Amino acid sequence: MSYDDNNIFAKILRGELPCEKVLENDYALAFNDIAPQAPIHILVIPKRPYESASQFSQNAADQELVAFQRLVGEVVSLKEIHDGGYRLISNTNRNGHQEVPHYHVHVLGGRDLGRMVF
Ligand code: 5GP
Q1: pLDDT per residue over 66-109, tens digit each?
Q2: C-beta of residue 106 within 8 angstroms of C-beta of residue 43
Q3: Could you tell me the pTM of the whole model?
Q4: Does 25 contact ligand 1 (Cβ within 6 A)?
Q5: Which atom of ligand 1 is nearest to the CA of 100?
């Protein structure tokens, strides 16, 4: 499976589609999900093209990995959801029902999210 340059997040990264930016650094961007499933629903994506968590973790440079994780933490701090609790989700491929084939982490919080789905 090769990376699809025309996916929605690639277009957002190129500035061809708008997004509600929350935070960014040199290697990652955080923006509000267009169809929020919780009061806080933010997507964190790497700026370089990776399809999945495993492809990112295996192929990204150390500084990209660090910058991505730091941005996730900064989003949690900015939105003050640590103490109440939050959930990180990364859907992958068919079984994971991944809709957009650019690696992303959903940061969900602001309400009781229920138990994890098995
Ligand atoms: P996935 O199922 O791939 O993990 O989730 C993709 C997410 O991207 C969904 O939660 C969906 O609402 C969100 N999304 C899809 N298109 C857009 C868009 O154009 N802008 C933003 N901000 N989010 C989008």
Answers
A1: 999 999 999 999 999 999 999 999 999 999 999 999 999 999 99
A2: yes
A3: 0.97
A4: no
A5: 3
